[in-house]
């Protein structure tokens, strides 16, 4: 069974631009969560989606948004990029309750110049 | 607000040693606790998940315990190998379906 995949793996953007990251969960998984990892703040929860609905959202500004499609694939978007948005963005998928083992993808490394 | 602490922040041991990594959390109202490893620049690999009703889980050379009432978990690694070198992260999940992570323990196993 294929694992969680994320594209692209690396991105370089400049301040003010916007970016879209993609995540494909493990087949059969319908819960997808996003996390931001930085050296200073560690791993922080962004949001969780299930059946195209956002069930929970972390404490991030409105510039961070996401969505989930009917095939459970998810995208997250960051608008008006700031230098502090440079981070590793990780996606995780799990079973329907969202309370089971979380399987993480390899991440997308975003650098904002 | 849930807070997760991992001690020590870094650990260096010679190959073959048994070792224990510690994790503590402030709110005992959790669904489960999960241990991950992360290699430099990579994603997280799930090692063990302990449900709140369980006391321990084992996988190969790894054994994780959970004492929910005291807010503590330990990850025991037997007969450590250089390939075990990585950052080990502890995370708890509560009703909000979000993981709260500790800052990790960076483990180096010396050949």
Structure summarized in a few sentences:
By secondary structure, chain A is mainly beta.
Largest interface, Cβ cutoff 8 Å? A-B, 26 and 23 residues
Mean pLDDT of chain A: 94
Distance between the termini of chain B: 41 Å
Structural class by SSE content of chain A: mainly beta
Shape descriptor of chain B reads globular
User: Which spans of chain B of ≥5 residues are poorly predicted at pLDDT below 50?
Assistant: none
Question: Radius of gyration of chain A from the CA trace?
Answer: 13 Å
Can you give a write-up of this model?
The complex is a heterodimer of chains A (113) and B (111). Chain A has 113 residues and is mainly β. Chain A is built from no helices and 11 strands. In chain A, strands 2, 4, 5, 6, 9, 10 and 11 form a 7-stranded mixed β-sheet that branches. In chain A, a hairpin with an 8-residue loop joins strand 9 and strand 10. Chain B starts with a strand and ends with a strand. Classes of the chains: A mainly beta (113), B mainly beta (111). Chain A binds chain B through residues 4, 31, 33, 35, 42-43, 45, 48, 55-56, 58, 88, 90, 92, 97-107, 109, and chain B through 31-32, 34, 36, 41-46, 49, 89, 91, 93, 96-104.
Task: Please specify the SSE layout and strand pairing.
The complex is a heterodimer of chains A (113) and B (111).
Chain A (H helix, E strand, L loop, with lengths): L4 E3 L2 E4 L5 E6 L6 E8 L3 E9 L2 E5 L6 E5 L5 E5 L8 E8 L8 E2 L3 E5 L1
Chain B lengths: L3 E4 L2 E5 L4 E7 L6 E7 L5 E8 L4 E4 L2 E6 L4 E6 L8 E8 L5 E3 L3 E6 L1
Parallel strand pairs in B: 2-11
Antiparallel strand pairs in B: 1-3, 3-8, 4-5, 4-9, 6-7, 7-8, 9-10, 9-11
Keywords:
heterodimer; A: mainly beta; 7-stranded mixed β-sheet; 11 strands; 0% helix; globular; B: mainly beta; 5-stranded antiparallel β-sheet
């Amino acid at each position: 069974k294929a694992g969680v995949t994320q594209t692209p793996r690396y991105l370089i953007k400049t301040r003010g631009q916007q970016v879209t990251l993609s995540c494909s969960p493990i087949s059969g998984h319908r819960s997808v969560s996003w996390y931001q990892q930085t050296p200073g703040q560690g791993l922080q929860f962004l949001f969780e989606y299930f059946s195209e609905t956002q069930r929970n959202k972390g404490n991030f500004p409105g510039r961070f948004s996401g969505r989930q499609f009917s095939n459970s694939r998810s995208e997250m978007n960051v608008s008006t990029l700031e230098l502090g948005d440079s981070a590793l963005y990780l996606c995780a998928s799990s079973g329907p309750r969202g309370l089971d083992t979380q399987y993480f993808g390899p991440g997308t490394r975003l650098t904002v110049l | 607000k849930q807070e997760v602490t991992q001690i020590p922040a870094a650990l260096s041991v010679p190959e073959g040693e048994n070792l224990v990594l510690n994790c503590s959390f402030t709110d005992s109202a959790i669904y489960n606790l999960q241990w991950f490893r992360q290699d430099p620049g990579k994603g997280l690999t799930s090692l063990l998940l302990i449900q709140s009703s369980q006391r321990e889980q084992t996988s190969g050379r790894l054994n994780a315990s959970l004492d929910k009432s005291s807010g503590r978990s330990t990850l025991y690694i037997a007969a450590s190998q250089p390939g075990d070198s990585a950052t080990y992260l502890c995370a708890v999940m509560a009703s909000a379906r979000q993981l709260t992570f500790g800052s990790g323990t960076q483990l180096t196993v010396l050949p």
